[in-house]
Write a structure and sequence with these properties.
binds glutamine; 9-stranded mixed β-sheet; about 550 residues; alpha/beta; Rossmann fold; 2 domains
């Protein structure tokens, strides 16, 4: 059942994808929090996959992992970074999940001989999932982002569901926002409203009239344009709110929406009082971001660097760490496969202006040797190095081969016959007996050992961090590594699994089996990213001397 006071804001998109719907939803969430309300946010994806866990980063970008171990759309990353909304697997819904549940129910005979149909069975399941989020944690607002573009066949059950919810709860508790594109035709220098008109028409055919329209524009909307859009799209003129392009960080999008009164008009729609908004920590973050005192160049060496979204949370966390150090960040993206062909002076010159090196996570062996030689370089040249998940596994391989004398040390992911499988599956290590050890997903505790640098950086004896991997450090090698100078800094106590490694005789060399990037926020930068950037700035100034 629905909670009495929760209000629902549904956000759809029109004309085309990539208009920044996820960030717009996250921004509205943040603004509503600034007015003192509690929000929760749901992403509904119209694809048939159960979740994006099995999708290629080329299809989907990063897979974002929640505290409870759900593999979700990267928009959830924006929701968590922008707001205090607690997100779980319930906040990420796909058509695949909905159908899977309904079909399982049908097989169990739960429908008692009735014909199972899209309406009402699929739509009721979608509705149930939305109301479930509302009944947990008692939010004032549930924001629901409908993935895809209005007009797609796939979106229809979701749109039908939100139409029904509006019908059932009324305008006092439901608001529809539609984000579209108003392109500028460059030769004529004119803004064109026709695609927006068509998109709204498409929505109206389903029975949804947007309360607020967010036309994405490359320059501010003038009054004439606004009234034209309002007239053709049946929207109150003041609720045609320009989603202007923003120069600078994506975080400023929130301020653009605030300037254009998205928050005020939302509260007015629901008849709620409009008081002054308070976002002091964000104001401070933006101010520091705009006035950097240093510059830092970080190389990210991975195999999906040509994709803007594949390492999204890592790029964001690097940015949070940089702002926390009052530094302007430049990320130098390097393809680990290309690096494989470099050696000697060519290798050195590639990294000549780099202050710190980060090797992120990944799957499969493409580009692995490039990552390993990068880590070798960072270790021997004493450049700050941060390894994450596969980045840690590569660091272990490199140290095994070049320091511990473990010839051809490898992960069984890349060489199942390796003589020195320093990274392997738990069943290969006989730590767990069940076959097919699946992924370690979501938050697990990590306890730090006495004297570990990482413990000081966190300022804590233990932490909870999120995982997404199958392979682990092979425990029987721990002693050899430690006697050669690589310290196991953090342990998952239950199975004594290695969570972090570090090297003492190095300005900053830390790698984690978990993904700290998922927990970094602009106003709460992750301690490891913050300290890695601090060390990288220090490296830069010591190089200059
Ligand atoms: N492929 C490695 C594993 O499965 C690392 C995964 C990752 O980097 N997320 O353990």
């Amino acid at each position: 059942m629905t909670d009495k006071k929760t209000r629902y804001i549904f956000v759809t998109g029109g004309v085309c994808s990539s208009l920044g719907k996820g960030i717009s939803v996250a921004s509205l969430g943040l603004l509503l929090e600034g007015h003192g309300y509690k929000v929760s946010i749901i992403k509904m994806d119209p694809y048939l996959n159960i979740d994006p866990g099995t999708m290629s980063p080329y299809q989907h970008g990063e897979v974002y992992v929640t505290e409870d171990g759900a593999e979700t759309d990267l928009d959830l990353g924006y929701y968590e970074r922008f707001t205090n909304s607690i997100l779980t697997r319930k906040n990420s819904v796909s058509t695949g999940q909905i159908y899977y549940t309904v079909i399982q129910r049908e097989r169990r005979g739960d429908y008692l001989g009735r014909t199972v149909q899209v309406i009402p069975h699929i739509t009721n399941e979608i509705k149930k999932r939305i109301f479930d989020v509302a009944s947990e944690g008692d939010p004032d607002f549930v924001l629901v982002e409908i993935g895809g573009t209005v007009g797609d066949i796939e979106s229809i059950p979701f749109l039908e569901t939100i139409r029904q919810i509006r019908h059932e709860l009324g305008r006092e508790r439901v608001m529809n926002i539609h984000l579209t594109l108003v392109p500028t035709i460059s030769v004529a220098g004119e803004l064109k409203t026709k695609p927006t008109q068509h998109s709204v028409k498409e929505l109206m055919q389903i029975g949804i009239i947007p309360d607020i329209l967010l036309p994405r524009v490359s320059r501010p909307l003038d009054d004439e344009m606004r009234s034209k859009i309002a007239l053709f799209c049946n929207v109150n003129e003041k609720n045609v709110i320009a989603a202007e392009d923003v120069n600078g960080s994506i975080y400023e999008i929130t301020y653009m929406f605030r300037k254009n009164k998205l928050d005020v008009n939302t509260l007015e729609h629901f008849g709620l009082p409009v008081k002054e908004i308070k976002l002091p920590k964000w104001d401070k973050f933006i101010k520091t971001y705009k006035n950097p005192k240093h510059k830092v160049r970080i190389a990210v060496v991975g195999k999906y660097i040509q994709l803007q979204d594949a390492y999204r949370s890592i790029y964001e966390a690097l940015m949070h760490g940089s702002v926390a150090n009052e530094a302007e960040l430049e990320i130098v993206k390097m393809d680990s496969e290309e690096i494989e062909s470099l050696a000697g002076a060519a290798f050195k010159s590639k990294f000549s202006d780099i202050d710190g090196i980060l090797v992120p996570g990944g799957f499969g062996n493409r580009g692995i040797e490039g990552k390993i030689s990068t880590i070798h370089y960072a270790r021997t040249e004493k450049i700050p190095f941060f390894g994450i998940c596969l980045g840690m596994q590569c660091a272990v391989i490199e140290f095994g081969r070049n320091v511990c004398g473990l010839e051809n040390a490898n992960s069984t992911e890349f060489d199942p016959q390796s003589k020195h499988p320093v990274i392997s599956l738990l069943e290969e290590q006989e730590i767990i007996v069940e076959k097919g050890g699946t992924m370690r997903l979501g938050a697990y505790p990590c306890e730090f050992v006495k004297g570990a640098k990482i413990k000081d950086i966190y300022g804590s004896d233990s932490v909870m961090e999120r995982h997404r991997h199958r392979f682990e450090f092979t425990m029987k090698y721990r002693e050899i590594y430690e006697s050669n100078g690589m310290l196991v800094g953090g342990i998952y106590p239950k199975n004594s699994l290695v969570e972090t490694i570090e090297i003492k005789d190095h300005p900053w060399y830390i790698a984690t089996q978990y993904h700290p990037e998922f927990k970094s926020k602009p106003i709460e930068p992750h301690p490891l990213f913050k300290d890695f950037i601090r060390a990288s700035i220090e490296n830069k100034s010591s190089r200059k001397k």
